[in-house]
Amino acid sequence: MQNEAPIESIWRMTKDIELAAAVGDWQRAAQLADERTPLLTALGVKPPHEVMAQLRAIHEIDNRIVEAARDAQQELGAEYQASMQKSRNAGRYLSMARS
Fold first, then answer.
1. pTM score > 0.85 for this model?
2. Which of 4, 32, 85, 96 is deepest in the core (most CB within 10 A)?
């Protein structure tokens, strides 16, 4: 892996981020994204022409991951709200049962 070209490292990390997101391991996805950022930055403002197609593919994958993260956040928020309501309902029942 030390002899790996920077774009290949970025590609591998992007695929690892995609996999982590697919299984809902958002902490791992965020960690990998943080590790990948300096590699992307190191490519500079004008990366070599042969790298651009791969960067476009990486950008498309990133967009799909962002959408999946939004969906997961909304779903988890809804589950949280439902759980909080159930907890309040159980608390009300306990209050009434003790009366």
1. no
2. 32
